Amino acid sequence: MVNNQIEFNNEYNKEVTEIEITDEYDFEGQLIIENYPNLKSLYLRDIETIEKITLKNLGQLQECTVRDCETKNLVIENCPQIGKLSVENNLLTNLGFIKDLENLEELKINGNTELVKILEPYYNENGLDWKTYQKSIQGSSKNIQELLKIIRDLKEKIKQLEKKQPTTIDNPDEFKKKYQELKEKLNFLLEKEQIKTEELSLLEEKSREIKLEDEKNNITTTDLFKKIKEDKNSLSELKKTNRKLEEKITTFEQTYQAKKEKIKQKEKKIEELKNNVKGKLSSEDQKVLEELLEVQDDLIQSDSSFVRKQLRKNKSMLSSKLTSEEIELFCQLQIEITNLKLEIQKNFNKVSQTLHIDNRTINIQGFNIEGSNNTFTNPSVQGNTMKTKTITYEEEKADSEQQALIETPSPNKLLK
User: What is the domain partition of the chain in residue ranges?
Assistant: First the structure.
């Protein structure tokens, strides 16, 4: 009796050359036959029920029968010597397991209803032309692997290009404008979600009141239900997009505030250092120091030989007044500040790309939302177009209990 994998493993040691199992009932789980280096013949028949059979690393296997086992999935890996294969009277739905069987000469698949239907185009006057099918799936597999490699290579190239592509830090006014647009767009979408939800609810309620008096009314009602279903699907996509954007903006806001606090601390440290060395510097030296910090900032954003040369010049001009440690500390703090600003900018750019805010138009399944005139349309229902008045926002204090989901940063909170 072999009714599960454990009993099979105990019954057949790894040195056997033949395995034959017949007339077993209530087999539990799947059957894995692997790493039998001397196995030449495998015969499984009338075993109920082995839904999945895996044959793996059977280097000498030449004849294999899996018949009347109600098997739905057969996996064959690294069994290159199989010449005869019978899988009759099972529940198989694909023939992918023959793809790598280069020595296969005889194949029997009768009694697998779905499998026979799939292979119908490969039947001719001589029966099933399974070798042509085998070549086709071998070619498909090769093409897929080649395509996957191309995709992987392209992804790697994109990553390399993204690393080389400089990120420009927006000035405070531009950053404020973009951030405001992003949050206006989110609030606009949330408002439309609420409006559309209420509309659909009302439409469903009205549809239930319709009495089917004749065939014509029946057709009209059917169309109405179809439109309601389409609107529900589109609304569902809109909700998913809104939740995704809410999560992204919330995450960005948390990161933004944390990094902004670090920037504030480092800028404070620079001011303290300036005050400490102020007695050593003339007014002209102080201008050179400010220029040093600006050039160091530029160098981080866009590395170039000209900027590096300018940085060395500024350091040289200050070297007679400040120690090398003092100069390097100024530069290091500025590097850290600029990197924090770059991180904020990159994170913000990723969030804004979710809505393609620069294009001012978002397409979400059946809905089209244009931010320029606040128009919200659903082409699946004729005449369903809504125009809304411009939405305005007021800033609130950071400690307000009524603070909006995401606070609009006031000018003094924006990046410097």
Answer: 5-118, 240-413
Exposure letters 128-163 (e unless 16+ CB within 10 A, then b):
bebeebbeeeeeeeeeeeeeeeeeeeeeeeeeeeee
Are 372 and 360 contacting, i.e. CB atoms less than 8 angstroms apart? Answer: yes
Considering only CA atoms, give the Rg of the chain: 35
Long-range CB contact pairs, 312-316, < 8 A, 24+: 314/288
Instruction: Pick the closest to residue 55 from 78, 23, 71, 29 (CA basis).
Output: 78
DSSP at 51: S
pLDDT digits (tens, 9 = 90+) for 254-292: 888 899 899 999 999 999 999 999 899 999 999 999 999
- Contact in structure between 181 and 357 (CB atoms under 8 Å): yes
What are the residues whose beta carbons fall under 8 Å from the beta carbon of 276, sequence distance 6 or more? none
Single out the residue of 24, 34, 98 nearest to residue 67, CA to CA: 24
Amino acid sitting at position 374: N
Cβ neighbours for 372, distance < 8 A, ≥ 6 positions apart: 360
Q: Quickly list DSSP for 59-88.
A: TT--EEEEESS--SEEEEES-TT--EEE--
Buried b (16+ CB within 10 A) or exposed e, 188-222: bbbebbeebeebeeeeeeeeeeeeeeeeeeeeeee
pTM for the model stands at: 0.42
- Two tokens, residue 134: 């085998």
